[in-house]
C-alpha cells in the first residue's frame, strides 16, 4: 500500500475538488473568506519583517551623520521664525 505524501498545500484540504487545478482556482476565487495563509507562513513572514526592521535600524544608526544645510543652521537658530529682515 502506498502512503499519501504529506503536504502543507491547502489544495489537498479542499473536499470539493475534482482533482483539477482549475476547479480549485475557481473555488478559491468564489470563497476568498475561507482561503487564508497558514499559521506557519504568517509566523515566518512576521519573523522576516522583524529581522528586516532590526537590520534597517542598525544601518541607520551605523551610518554617518551629514549636515544638510550647515551654513543655515547656525545663522537661522538665532533669528525668530517669520522674521525675514
From TrEMBL:
It comes from Vreelandella sulfidaeris. Residues 18-28, 41-58 have a biased composition (Basic residues). Residues 68-85 have a biased composition (Basic and acidic residues). Residues 1-85 are annotated as: Disordered. This is Uncharacterized protein. It comes from the Bacteria. The lineage of its organism: Bacteria, Pseudomonadati, Pseudomonadota, Gammaproteobacteria, Oceanospirillales.
Amino acid at each position: 500500500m502506498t502512503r499519501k505524501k504529506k503536504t502543507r498545500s491547502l489544495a489537498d484540504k479542499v473536499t470539493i475538488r475534482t482533482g483539477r487545478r482549475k476547479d480549485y482556482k475557481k473555488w478559491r476565487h468564489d470563497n476568498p473568506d475561507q482561503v487564508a495563509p497558514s499559521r506557519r507562513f504568517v509566523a515566518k513572514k512576521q519573523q522576516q519583517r522583524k529581522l528586516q526592521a532590526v537590520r534597517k535600524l542598525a544601518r541607520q544608526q551605523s551610518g554617518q551623520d551629514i549636515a544638510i544645510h550647515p551654513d543655515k543652521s547656525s545663522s537661522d537658530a538665532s533669528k525668530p521664525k517669520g522674521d525675514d529682515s
